[in-house]
Q: What sequence folds into this?
């Protein structure tokens, strides 16, 4: 067994693993703001062709060593572009580690209309002005797997113009999370703001389980990971962690 760590150290490591991706989103957000600034100086609205300049940066981030993201890009607030009412510049990783553009249907009359205006990963950063992590949920339109979606609001002259975002397959980030949970001396699990299990160091809990029965366990201790962004909690149970539990 690896050497045990205490709860504060575990929380810092978990937060580091979860929040590292925001550095890439900050860089992407800065490039979007630069595009809007250039277009503003030319007294015109940006277009989807202007956003095409982001593709090389998005691809480089997705293909960089050590990244857990399998999709990333920018999603634009309606009315911000001169040629598209709704638009995203988004790429995803293919099996050969090459990138492919994500193509979605924004025809509101179509049954397959992709209405991102009602999706929490877009509405939460728009409404709060803060970064957000949504999930895990099954991304049926993009990766068709359990993902966490990281989003960062983008502003220009104080106006919300869209989000920079990234999708992380849960099985990728889960390995990092469980590695740290396994170093705690007691059984423990991460629970989302919606009360669902994200990761656990015991086989008694599966990803996506509702953790309501935790409320009846005497001696369980709860620790907030990050109230501002996650709303997740680390819950430590009184049972000592054993090899069979893990």
A:
């Amino acid at each position: 067994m690896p050497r045990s760590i205490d709860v504060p150290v575990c929380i810092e490591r978990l937060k580091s693993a979860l929040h590292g991706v925001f550095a890439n989103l900050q860089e992407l957000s800065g490039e979007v703001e630069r595009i809007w600034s250039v277009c503003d100086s030319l007294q015109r609205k940006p277009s989807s062709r202007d956003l095409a300049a982001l593709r090389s940066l998005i691809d480089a981030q997705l293909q960089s060593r050590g990244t857990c993201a399998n999709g990333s890009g920018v999603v634009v607030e309606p009315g911000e572009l001169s040629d598209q009412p709704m638009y995203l510049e988004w790429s995803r990783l293919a099996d050969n580690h090459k990138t492919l553009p994500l193509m979605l249907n924004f025809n509101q009359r179509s049954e397959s209309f992709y209405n991102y205006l009602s999706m929490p990963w877009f509405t939460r950063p728009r409404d709060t002005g803060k970064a957000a992590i949504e999930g895990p949920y099954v991304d049926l339109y993009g990766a068709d797997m359990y993902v966490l979606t990281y989003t960062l609001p983008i502003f220009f002259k104080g106006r919300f113009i869209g989000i920079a975002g990234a999708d992380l397959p849960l099985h990728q980030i889960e390995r990092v999370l469980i590695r740290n949970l396994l170093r705690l001396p007691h059984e423990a699990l991460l629970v989302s703001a919606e009360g669902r299990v994200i990761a656990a160091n015991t086989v008694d809990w599966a990803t996506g389980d509702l953790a309501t029965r935790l409320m009846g366990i005497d001696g369980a201790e709860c620790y907030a990971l990050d109230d501002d962004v996650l709303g997740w909690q680390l819950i430590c149970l009184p049972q000592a962690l054993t090899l069979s539990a893990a």
